[in-house]
């Protein structure tokens, strides 16, 4: 007997429905079994760098909860662009991740990049934030930010600030100081490294700088630098006596750096959730928290959505600064 058109149509409908259900179940099944092998976390900076140190102290500890090894893959070069671009094109299966810093949103404004900081990545969690610290030589007559502004106004072009290079937090903080202080005439002296930046202030070659807090901390503790303010939204737990730039100068003067874990965009949501849960557990560990706090960092542990919002906001902030200042990569 020849099947009726209606019966054939029903059979086709059942077959299609079965295929759709099976296809939809595949990502869920993958997520439930994830991970089944080693996970590679790309750090787009050399071994021994600040980003690498945080990755090894925090991300590597996720291996215990995930039940699989985590391999840190240092792919430095082009200010972090090489490793970042590699992960942007990696398989979306949760086995190749990216541990990056603020350069993710800072680089697009100063160089040609082959990734979209918003569209090409699935944020997992912010790990920590770290502000910069406004420092001057220990014998500087400036004891407050307002003292420093008065000195700059009294002698236009007579002060210079050091940075660790164009387009970094030290550079942008210095320019924000100048603009928010009433278009101060302070000369920018870019160096090749944070170490040179700090040394120039300690030796009096420059009169101020905004090194990252963890770089400034030992020199301030040793009395080799004088701290005037921090650029974060709140005071540092290590230097609670040092005001924020908002308190010392102007509301809204907030600029800090961050570290965070991301996956390629399109990675299954359930995999992102699993990775997020394990990372938050690690960040709740007192030993890990103390390690980060001791390195002058504020522990975060955000949701993926919160991290996505930070990326979008900071991409605009850092790009606007680069365009306004005409900054290009060194």
The helix/strand order is HEHHEHEHEEHEHEHEHEHEHHEH
Name of the CATH homologous superfamily of the largest domain: Bordetella uptake gene, domain 1
| Unreliable stretches | 12-28
User: How many DSSP H or I helices?
Assistant: 13
The name of the CATH architecture of the largest domain is 3-Layer(aba) Sandwich
Name of the top-level CATH class of the largest domain: Alpha Beta
- In round numbers, the mean pLDDT is 90
State the helicity in percent bands. Answer: 40-55%
Spatial order of the strands in the main sheet? 2-1-3-10-4-11
Distance between the termini: 79 Å
Share in β-strands: 15-25%
Largest sheet: 6 strands, mixed
Give an overview of the whole structure:
The protein is built from 13 helices and eleven strands. The chain has helices at 5-33, 50-58, 62-66, 81-88, 103-106, 145-154, 169-180, 194-202, 213-221, 245-248, 269-283, 286-294, 304-325, and strands spanning 39-43, 70-74, 96-101, 121-131, 133-136, 159-163, 186-190, 208-209, 226-230, 256-264, 298-299. Helix 1 (5-33) runs parallel beside helix 11 (269-283). The strands form three sheets. It has a six-stranded mixed sheet with strand order 2-1-3-10-4-11, sandwiched between helices. A three-stranded parallel sheet has the order 7-6-8. The protein has a two-stranded antiparallel ribbon with strand order 5-9. By secondary structure, it is of the alpha/beta class. It folds into two domains: 37-130 and 257-325, Bordetella uptake gene, domain 1 (D-Maltodextrin-Binding Protein, domain 2, 3-Layer(aba) Sandwich); 133-248, Periplasmic binding protein-like II (D-Maltodextrin-Binding Protein, domain 2, 3-Layer(aba) Sandwich), CATH 3.40.190.
